[in-house]
Amino acid sequence: MFNYILRRLLIMIPTLIGVTLVTFVLINLAPGSPIEQKIQQMKFGGGSQHSDSGGGGSSKSSAVSEEVIEALKKQYGFDKPMHVRYWIWLTNIVKLDFGESFTYEEPVIDVITSKFPVSLQFGVISLLMSYIVSIILGVVKAVKHGGKFDYITSFMLFIMYSIPGFMLAILLIVYFAGGGFFDWFPIGELYSDGYADMTFWQQIVDRVHHFILPLICYMIGSFTVLTMLMKNSLLDEVKKDYIRTARAKGVSEKVVYLKHALRNALIPIVTGIGGFLSIFFAGSLLLETIFQLDGMGLLGYKSILQRDYNVIMGLLFIQSLVMLVGKILSDIAYVLVDPRIDFE
Question: Domain spanning 113-337 has what CATH number?
């Protein structure tokens, strides 16, 4: 297993280089570079400062000289060829130096880390709750397959799956967050203004109070797929010969499901762990916008609109790294669930 993990780690290096290279070329070929946006801001500012002048004076004042343009290119590093700029960016990655954000005018790593806690907290909690609830519910549905509980929960799960998260967010705000009916839950930020002065348990309650509505919307569709996958995987497993043998020996149904079949039925479930890591890192743009949460999804969207190349590349590199690490964790989970699996 150690050799396999080592090989996967080594393969990650050319993979990351390939992903970042393609992205770097694409965003640099796209129209509307940071230099062009900066020039437009200067022209707009120049025009507004001389709005009382005649039309010709305003147009002349808004012009940007070639010297200023060249100075901007040198300031932002665009005076070098594309391949040279990519090589500089790649060598700085070793030091976790993603450059400086054109928009925020501070190191990219500081910008990302300031937004990361929002996506991290919602991602970890939704990951744990989705898997715990889905596995337990899937096992119970498999045991009670064909019964009233199975039909009712299936109906509820598919209703939940059909509701878009952002639409549910709007409805929850309208009905429960001061949108015209009840004002039970706050929106915006992750804690109240007096959070620092609260006791430990008050802080936990305050966090939960802020988390409830966004977390419901984050998780509304994830239960259905995982629960049905768990149920069907377990039902397929209990039809196999070794389960028939266990039953023939007089083993109780509880032991058959929970001891013999469950471990093998978990194998398809663990494949999604790596994907969940990249999903919660990316965040949800719509949910973060609706609930006024300044997370990774909103940061990525704003960076693309503002052509903040360094932030885009930093987000892409970290997300790609997390996704590749997640794939390795999925393989490790395979081995933990079924020791018979050998990747050597």
Answer: 1.10.3720.10
